[in-house]
Amino acid sequence: MATSIASTETKTAPATQLGTVRPEGLWSKAGRRFLRHKLAMFGLAVMAILLLSAIAAPVLTPHSPIQQDLRNLRKPPSAQHLLGTDGLGRDILTRVLYGGRISLSVGLVSVTIAAVIGIIVGIIAGYYGGKTDMVLMRATDMVMTFPSLVIMITIAAALGPSIFNAMLIIGFLTWPAIARLVRGQFLTLRTQQFALAARSIGVSNWEIAFKHIFPNTISFITVAITFGVATAILMEASLSFLGLGVQAPTPSWGNMLRDAQGMNILEDMPWIWLPPGILIALAVLSINFIGDGLRDALDPRSYL
Amino acid sequence: MNKHYKLIAFVALIALFLSVACAPAATQPTSAPPTQAASAAPTAAAPTQGADTAPTQAAATAPADAPGATSKGPAGVLRLPLRPGVTVGSLWTAAGRHLDEAFLSGLAEVKWTADGVQPMLAKSWDMEDGGKAFVFHLRDDVKWSDGKPFTADDVLYTLNTYANPKVGAIHAGKLSDIVGYADVKDGKTETLSGVTKVDDHTVRVELSTPTPLFVELKIPFVSILPAHILSSVPADKLKGNDYWNNVVGTGPFIMTKMVQDQLVEGVANPDYFEGKPKLDKVVYQVYADSNTMLAALEAGEIDGMLFQGGGIPVDQVARFEALPNLKVLGNMDAGLPTFMLINLNKDYFKDVRVRQAIMHAIDRQTIIDTVKLGTGTLSNTMFPMEWARAQDLTDYPYDPEKAKALLTEAGWDSSRKIDLQRYYTDQVNKDTVDAIAAQLQAVGINAVVREVKSAEFQASIDDDSLELAYAANGQGLDPSLGILVTGCGQRLSVGYCNEEVDKLYAEGQSSADRAVRAPSYQKISKILNEELPKGWLWWEVRPVAFDTRIVGLAEHFEEQPLLLFDIPVYNQMHTWYTK
Amino acid sequence: MLAYLIRRILVNIPLLIGITFIVFMLASMMPGDAVLAMISTDTPVSDEMIKMRRGELGLDLPLPVQYLRWMSNVVRGNLGYSFVSAESVSQMIAIRIPATLELMGVSLLISIVLGVTLGAISALKQYSFTDYSFTIFGFVGISIPDFFLGLILVFIFAIKLGWFPTSGFQTAGQEFSVFDNLRHVFLPALALALVRTAVFMRYTRSSILEVLGNDYVRTARAKGLKETIVIVRHIMRNGLIPVITIIGISLGVLFAGSVIIETIFQWPGIGMMFINAVTGRDSPVIMGYVLLTAVIVLVANLVTDIVYSVADPRIRYE
Predict the structure, then answer these.
(1) In chain B, which residues have their Cβ closer than 8 Å to the Cβ of C266?
(2) Most exposed: B262, B391, B424, C311, by fewest CB within 10 Å?
(3) CA-based nearest distance C19→chain A, Å
(4) pLDDT tens digits, one per residue of C178-236
(5) Residue B257 domain-assigned?
(6) Which of B292, B338, B429 to mutate to test the interface with C (most CBs of C within 10 A)?
(7) SS3 assignment, position B305
């Protein structure tokens, strides 16, 4: 299982880079740095194209992603089928476009799930500390300790394969990284001047947590989430490879790639696997570039 | 410099993919070249192909430089693939027979020509009272691989062990006709009262109902085990016993090494009763993934692809035919009726018009012609063997309008979501089921495909949640096996019960003479054709391939009229040798 | 330090109980059981036999009872017996774990050597063409699903070029030799390694960049020390400390990755054993595997923390 760089890097990051309350104008400075980050801009452009073409799929192609044409199967690219057809005569271009909807939304939805759980757990643990923190962090450790693919396989086998289960499983397995990050930030920030000041003037705990401390953690969360999307897309592909992901006939990049396992297809029919293969790699690559750019832009260490 | 890396990122990525996509263009044909080359000498074969193929393929048909083209197998060694789990022992897994072929023997085994049985440990047998009892005369010149003589005690021990419920043998049911089986099954005793030792080399088996084909249809499933080693092992401790890692047997090879889920090795048994094998060594390599198995075959790491693992997928036959060291039997009849398994316990499937609609909705011929690359034979009933089929079967041609009309008549609710299970994972079967689902949807049967593991499929039969499944059932040996799919109360009958069919199955077994048996099965075939307990699709073809460096292996399978699934077949393994 | 260690170990116990309980429940939720999984659908089998086999395995006890039974056996050092083969699970693991450790070890070695070298070069030549190309190479590595990377490696290096065998642990029918075995481990290890290389590379790069800015590096250079000595003695030594952390974190990921890679390459390790167990609904084996990987990952985390504190005197545990 490929994990993105940052999901591991961020785990240890708080130890050395805590404690900077950002000066005014952080976001505009960060924004300028981000815009200067060429790889990130490349990633952003590619992602924009991928997202737009997934959304506009029905407009971009006259075919249906599930319409079969048995008399025209495994045909190489032609004027009628720009990227050829698959084992059931379905238009590959149409399938990668619609598959993008599935793969990207698996990425986005599962990361949203992970972010929501992670942020809530992180805030509660980080803000209250003590026993609450202890219990929540052990739970986090527990989920982190699961070899994620192992547990994914077991859960998918238990719940049955479907796109929603794929989203849920990926989401529920990836929140600990975000939770730890948020908690780490909170532990540091809650003793900072501005939080203490707010408390001294009688601002409620929740208000301090959300209005004052939380905004300071957003930059870290953004980076983690970005990398999370890349991880989720790869996880979907792995699940699909094992037959536990998105089910046919719905296309996803992962299950389209799974259709290319035979050496005959790998060698003689590249039009079947190249498009989903390139798109997965391109999407993950772009997201990692964006994440890298965001980190450089938002990470205080990059002042060095 | 900054401008460059966008470009490099993209180029690097594309290059990686293209290097894979393009490399092949120079070496492999897309469609099937002539296959004769395979029987020629491997070293000289490659160039001979190019001459008579179409110009478009000429450049592509010289795989001489491809490493897979020449076999690299060591002399005197046979290397065959196995699926994981087989190493448990043949008592508990049907596919265990693949190992037994090398390491154990039966009293009698099915001939590779599938026309009767070959006397093995029993040199002959007498049938009494039209099949009420059998007397087996055992060979007296057979030694176990540890040097101890083989005797009647081994046969008694083996039959008792197979029947013992504490052992949980997968073929226990094959002995259900033996007198005393019920008592053993109920745990009253551990000894079959119908099996008696007449003398050291004679065993008498008494049956509760006359079964003239007892030796042909039941005995081959039993591999004789050594009593002198195992009789001291309690029945419930037999599984997992170290014996299975060091099998002492009577087969052509002696097991020398067993690493679970990895490999099994054996050396020639110099005392094999059919003669010392010409091969020195046999190695079974275990593969969990059939694509890995195929890659290994292509690279010349194994000497054959049997139906263990599904054989060669039909869409890859051309690829393997292009390898000069391989003999591909691309059109091997698998004796495998393939059908839509329909749960007749569900009210909405009870109306025969619904099942007729399923038949008319599926464009079987087109699927065979396209997705299945022309392999398989359209079927309207079950039995794969022609003599067991009636002549006047109703055909169900592709007719979506008729299907719609039938559904309307039957009051079908097209909003009902129907779960269609598929447990095959290879590309052709995946595509086939997706095509069927789309065609069913087109007439208003809202079938949604779901990939399941075997366990899940079986569980859906148990809890009756099964609706539709794409299934197949090996019946190459004899039509009598069909009762397990269409008999009353049988697991795979899922709700189908016609007492007349059961009666006809019983009649079919009352004689050993095919002419006497045929009418019963033909009547069954007609009933199954009319009542459609399953949606009959086709009889499958399962291509297999063998390295021609092993002389005898491909030759035997060429003579085999159909593949016998997980049934012990006598293949004269001791006569095979490497070139 | 000792108190800290004991506390860390104690904390892990409820963690392990939690993990195993959840996995146990999940494993029992999987549709079908071990008996049903053993039936081949191509070969007809009677209902009677299925009942016989169920009784044999005793799959009828209530779940919590089954779990407690399992747990009490585990405490006594017995991981139970496989439903499929009746082998002892601890023995199954013992037989297979060397293969998995070999695969992980070689792959870790490849990714560290590759990652640290490329990362160090990148850092020393920051913002150069080399830096960018290495960065991109690393990112491409993590952007391809590992199963597909494996497939492509087999296709190129085993089928087309014939440099390496397609799969397996050793050549069938030959005596075991280390060289033959290393030829077999290379492709799966590479597939597993390429995915991790980028992590090591990026980490090394940023960590060395940080060190480069430090006074002692400038001092060393000012002293007129040879550049190679500066790089090896001062930059690498200090720059690589954080990389140790990743090795620990990598273990969990490597275990997960080895599940798919072992299956594709027929590498006879515990990852393949686990996949077969999931398909075969062999819950004692599933549980044994999960317990083992969880323990290893927890221990690895602990060791990482300790090594880190030894390597970096600034870190102290109370």
Answers:
(1) 285-289, 292, 296
(2) B391
(3) 6
(4) 889 999 999 999 999 988 888 788 788 878 887 777 777 777 777 777 777 777 777 77
(5) no
(6) B292
(7) strand
Q: Tell me what ipTM this predicted complex has.
A: 0.82
Is residue C217 classed as helix, strand or coil in its secondary structure? helix
Beta strands B117-119 and B108-111 are antiparallel
Residue B192 · residue B175 · CB < 8 Å: yes
* Residues A159, C246: C-beta atoms closer than 8 Å: no
> Buried b vs exposed e over B436-473: b needs ≥16 C-beta within 10 Å?
bbbbbbebbbebbbbbbbbbbbbbbbbeeebbbbbbbb
**CB–CB contact A5 C26 (8 Å):** no
pTM of the shown model: 0.83
Read off φ and ψ for residue B117, nearest 5 degrees: -115, 160
**Cβ B456–C166 below 8 Å, yes or no?**
no
Residue to test with chain B: of C159, C190, C267, most B Cβ within 10 A: C159
DSSP 8-class letter at B472: E
pLDDT digits (tens, 9 = 90+) for C148-167: 889 999 999 999 898 999 99
Q: Which residues of B touch A157 (CB under 8 A)?
A: 453
Task: Extract long-range pairs of B438-442: CB within 8 Å, 24+ residues apart.
Answer: B438/A66, B438/A68, B438/A88, B438/A249, B439/B361, B439/B362, B439/B363, B439/B400, B440/B358, B440/B361, B440/B362, B442/B361, B442/B400
Q: Is the CB of residue B320 less than 8 Å from the CB of residue B328?
A: yes
Three-state SS for B392-455 is CCCCCCCCHHHHHHHHHHCCCCCCCEEEEEECCCCHHHHHHHHHHHHHHHHHCCEEEEEECCHH
Q: What does the block give as tokens for B503?
A: 């009666």
Residue B525 lies in a domain: yes
Contact C158 B16 (CB under 8 A): no
Domain A27-60+81-303 has CATH 1.10.3720.10: yes
Domain count, chain B: 1
CATH code, domain with B434: 3.10.105.10
CATH class of C98-271: mainly alpha
Break chain C into its structural domains and give their ranges.
Answer: 98-271
Window 179-238 of C, Cβ < 8 Å to B? none
* Enclosing domain of residue B513: 336-540
- B532/B380 Cα distance (integer angstroms): 9
β partners of residue B265: B257, B283
- Taking contacts as CB-CB distances below 8 angstroms, the residues of chain B near A282 are 13
Q: At what angle do helices C270-279 and A148-159 cross, to 10 degrees?
A: 10
